[in-house]
Specification:
The complex is a heterodimer of chains A (369) and B (257).
Chain A (H helix, E strand, L loop, with lengths): L3 H11 L12 H7 L7 H7 L8 H16 L2 E9 L26 H12 L5 E5 L9 H11 L5 E5 L5 H9 L4 E7 L3 H7 L8 H5 L1 H7 L4 E6 L6 H18 L4 E5 L18 H14 L4 E4 L5 H7 L6 E3 L26 H10 L3 E3 L7
Chain B lengths: L7 E2 L2 E2 L4 E3 L9 H9 L3 E5 L21 E5 L6 H13 L5 E4 L12 H13 L3 E6 L3 H10 L5 E2 L13 H10 L5 E3 L5 H10 L3 E4 L1 H4 L4 H21 L20
Parallel strand pairs in B: 3-4, 3-10, 4-5, 6-7, 7-8, 9-10
Antiparallel strand pairs in B: 1-2
The chains are: A alpha/beta (369), B alpha/beta (257).
Chain lengths: 369, 257
């Protein structure tokens, strides 16, 4: 099947797009961008420049205004649920990669039900299902079986799994999945090859087109992102935004969102290649809100509580809560997590924080029809 | 307001001409305060947000008993999804009113009139009181009426934009040419714009974002309540027509007998 949005994105990417780190816009030009209704990709790039960091406060205020207008004073909550940690890929930054000497597990239907019960008891109705890539241990059929079980507990089920064909996505949608989360990790082909030394994930292009295949399969929501810290972060986030932009142009009905995951310590001891400061993270979120005012922005528990509590005020629309990155980590097993989380608050605590901050936590925002 | 000036929709006499939304609030417990301050007659609730098992987080727990509940199909991308959401709402005990929202454009959230028409036909035939949210198009309005719509809900401007009556001329034509109640929905950002819609001849207005995201939502709700009443009174009083030129007080033809 054709993937026109990906083709268009690739054309933008290959047009020799220079990093925002190299852009040196004048202050008045940047100030003008804060009053515009629409921004071009080139203007979005300027807002990601180091020079624009000096306008962080007015940028954040404009982002807050747009977020309030389109999303109101609400925040959608979700939580991740790891089905298994078997993986054949060698991603050098991941705690679950094939080379890691860790215990491997896969939830049985009973274990999955127990995990789901614990989550559902918190009131959450949105869950994000994750697993590593292993056609032996976690083929699409297994994931589909899990989704069918989870439908008894949740009204919206998102999948963050290895990339699939349109037909496979359609099949999972038919079994109850409605959203897809998939990170390209890095948009830089050379860096991508270094970080993924073996396994099917080496296929950069198959992964790049996967979000579009999800749109074509009729999934309602698609969430993309780059793992910040692997490569020039300003360029990586520019490309994330442009990727989202190309997808939204082609698939206007899909609820698009981006995540900005900063690389976290993992059991293997991977060190980030570049620093992504808190101010950069805030700048990226605000700039993206101006570029795509109605798109979602998700922020996970990779970030510490104090940062999350600040960022909810200008752009973020989805927060994870009560997270656990270990397989069966809430009920039956206590193996290592995929990465360390930094905000350990449960759903009740996150809700209380949101109410305190004048934001309503939304536990249910969709139900599979 | 005179007793004779009452809006009825689907056989229900409404206590006022202000409809409010229930999304975007900092906390759901503001909803009863907003409804009371606005004197709102109807409240719309997104079916997708309703969770009957959620206890205090269930939005329905915050809807006052004396207001007409109008579930909406927000999130539906085609007629089929809208119909399913409507049936879910009825099964959940939300009554038989339904505001049909079919939107398949995440950039401007413009309603899809063709899919909305299909859903209206199906749901009106099932006995729902159907209020379709539409782009203001006269032909769509006529087809919706033929399909059994109880009222029309054209947008003043895209949802959440607070831009007011950008579609004013199209709304005016629709009000003039159809005998269904026309309720201006979406885009009304200020009480003065709500008053303008009522002066234009709207049967009612629906306001959500402008109230929910105000610094003081309850006070803003009261302001909208007053504006809607003022606009309606002005419409009933028959406002003077706007003129392109000044009207001389000594007419040219005054000498003619």
């Amino acid at each position: 099947m054709n993937t026109p949005a990906t083709t268009r994105f690739r054309a933008l990417q290959e047009a020799g797009l220079a990093s925002p780190a190299a852009a040196t816009p004048e202050l008045p030009a940047l100030q003008r961008l804060l009053t515009q209704d629409r921004l071009t990709p080139a203007e979005f790039r300027l807002l990601l420049s180091p020079a624009a960091e000096t306008l962080l406060e007015p940028l954040a205020r404009r982002a807050q205004e747009l977020t309030l207008r389109h999303f109101g004073r609400t925040m959608q909550l979700y939580t991740p649920l790891y089905l298994a940690n078997y993986c054949v890929n060698g991603c050098t930054y991941c705690g679950y990669s094939a080379g890691q000497r860790i215990e491997r597990h896969r939830l049985t239907p009973d274990q999955l039900r127990r995990e789901a019960e614990v989550i559902a008891a918190t009131g959450l109705r949105h869950v994000l299902v994750l697993t590593g890539e292993s056609l032996t241990h976690t083929p699409p059929d297994y994931i589909g079986d899990c989704i069918e079980i989870l439908r008894d507990y949740f009204t919206s089920i998102a999948i963050e799994i290895y990339p699939l064909s349109v037909d496979s996505y359609r099949e999972l949608a038919g079994r109850g999945a409605d959203s897809l989360t998939l990170y390209q990790e890095t948009y830089d082909r050379t860096r991508y090859a270094e970080l993924h030394p073996y396994g099917p994930k080496r296929d950069y292009d198959f992964r790049l087109a996967a979000p579009e295949r999800g749109c074509q399969a009729g999934l309602r929501a698609v969430n993309i992102g780059a793992l910040l810290g692997l490569h020039d972060a300003r360029l990586e986030f520019l490309l994330t935004g442009l990727h989202a932009y190309c997808l939204q142009e082609q698939y206007p009905g899909v609820d698009l969102a981006v995540s900005l995951p900063r690389i976290r310590p993992v059991p293997g001891g991977f060190q980030p290649a570049v620093a992504v400061t808190d101010r950069m993270l805030a700048q990226f979120i605000a700039a993206f809100r101006l570029f795509m005012p109605r798109a979602g922005i998700a922020l996970s528990t990779r970030e510490r509580a104090s940062i999350r509590d600040g960022l909810i005020h200008f752009g973020v629309t989805r927060l994870s809560a009560g997270s656990n990155t270990a397989v069966g980590g809430r009920t039956c097993q206590s193996g290592s997590g995929q990465f360390e989380i930094d905000d350990h608050r449960g759903v009740a605590e996150i809700s209380a924080m949101l109410y305190q901050a004048g934001r309503q936590p939304v536990f249910k925002d969709w139900q599979t029809l | 307001m005179p007793d004779t000036d009452t809006l009825s929709i689907g056989g229900t006499r409404l206590a006022s001409r202000l409809f409010v939304g229930s999304g975007k609030y900092a906390r759901n417990s503001l909803i009863p305060e907003v409804v009371a301050a606005a004197g709102a007659a109807v409240i719309t609730v997104a079916v997708r947000r309703v969770d009957l098992e959620a206890g205090a987080e269930n939005i329905l727990a915050h809807i006052p008993p004396n207001i007409v509940l109008m579930p909406n199909t927000s999130g539906a991308r085609n007629a089929q999804e809208a119909v399913r959401l409507a049936r879910l709402a009825r099964a959940a005990g939300c009554g038989n009113w339904i505001k049909i929202e079919v939107i398949d454009d995440n950039r401007y959230l413009m309603p899809d009139n063709a899919e909305t028409l299909k859903a209206t036909e199906l749901l009106a035939a099932e006995g729902f009181v159907v209020l379709p949210y539409i782009s203001p198009d006269l032909y769509a309005a006529r087809r919706l009426k033929a399909a059994g719509a109880a009222a029309l809900m054209p947008l003043g401007a895209p949802i959440g934009t607070n831009r007011g009556l950008q579609t004013k001329e199209l709304l005016r034509i629709m009000m003039e040419e159809t005998d269904l109640p026309v309720i201006v929905d979406a885009g009304i950002g200020r009480p003065s714009q709500a008053a303008a819609a009522m002066e234009l001849g709207a049967a009612a207005v629906l306001v959500n974002t402008a109230i929910a995201t105000a610094d003081d939502p309850v006070r803003m709700a009261a302001a909208f309540g007053l504006a809607v009443q003022a606009g309606r009174q002005a419409w009933l009083a028959g406002p003077g027509r706007c003129r392109e030129t000044a009207a001389a007080s000594s007419p040219l033809t005054g000498f003619l007998r």
